[in-house]
Write a structure and sequence with these properties.
single chain; alpha/beta; two-stranded parallel ribbon; 16% strand; globular
C-alpha cells in the first residue's frame, strides 16, 4: 500500500504525519481478514494507532460495503456522499495540520472515479487546491493510465508533487524501464519506484 510506505518513511525521520482516507468502499468489518487488509486499518497501523471505532471514523468517515465506485457503493445502501461535507472534512484537516506536519489525504480508485452523481475524485482534489501524489502500479497498461491521469490533473491546474510506481504482482518490464518512459513524457516530475514489500 503506497500511502502506508509514505507514512512509514516519514515516521522514520521523526516528522509528524497524519493521514486520512475519507472514502472507502469494500469495507467489511465482519471479516477479520478483510478488516485487517483494508486501506483504513493499514493506514491506522502505519500511523501507530489501534483501529478503534473512533479512529476508523476519523480516518474514513464514508465507508461502504460493496467494492465498487463510491457512487455505486453508496447507492446500494440507499446512501449518498455529500461532496461539500467531504471537502469540509478535508479542509479542516488541512487547516489543523501544523507547519511541521505532513498530511496525506488518500483518494479512492483513481482521479476519474465517480464520487457522486456529478462529481469525480478529480473534482475533489481540485476543490482542495493541494498538490497530488500520483501512485500507480507497474502492470501492463500503467503507462497509458498514468499519463491519462496526469493529463486529467493538468487539465484542472492541479500540480503533481511526485509519481510513485508501486510494483504490481505482475510487472511485464522492470519498474526502472517504466519510470524512464514516464520521465520522458512527464518532464521534470520526480518519479520513485517501490518494490513489493520494500520501503521507500
Amino acid at each position: 500500500h503506497g500511502l502506508c510506505r509514505l507514512i512509514e518513511r516519514d515516521r522514520r525521520t521523526d516528522r509528524s504525519v497524519e493521514a486520512l482516507k475519507p472514502v472507502i468502499s469494500g469495507w467489511n468489518p465482519e471479516d477479520p481478514g478483510e478488516f485487517e487488509a483494508s486501506d483504513t486499518v493499514r493506514i491506522l497501523r502505519a500511523l501507530g494507532r489501534d483501529a478503534t471505532p473512533a479512529a476508523i471514523d476519523a480516518c474514513s468517515p464514508h465507508r461502504f460495503r460493496e467494492p465498487l465506485s463510491p457512487d455505486m457503493a453508496a447507492a446500494r445502501e440507499n446512501r449518498g456522499i455529500s461532496f461539500d461535507l467531504l471537502v469540509d472534512i478535508c479542509r479542516e484537516a488541512i487547516e489543523s495540520a501544523g507547519d511541521e506536519e505532513t498530511l496525506y489525504i488518500e483518494g479512492v480508485g483513481g482521479v476519474m472515479v465517480p464520487l457522486t452523481d456529478d462529481k469525480l475524485v478529480l473534482d475533489w482534489i481540485a476543490a482542495l487546491n493541494i498538490p497530488a501524489i500520483l501512485v500507480v502500479g507497474s502492470y501492463l497498461g500503467t503507462l497509458s493510465h498514468t499519463l491519462t491521469a496526469a493529463l486529467a490533473l493538468e487539465s484542472r491546474n492541479i500540480p503533481i508533487y511526485s509519481v510513485i510506481i508501486s510494483e504490481s504482482e505482475e510487472s511485464p518490464v522492470p519498474m526502472e524501464e517504466t519510470a524512464a518512459t514516464l520521465q520522458r513524457f512527464l518532464g521534470g516530475l520526480r518519479i520513485e519506484t517501490v518494490g513489493r514489500n520494500k520501503q521507500l
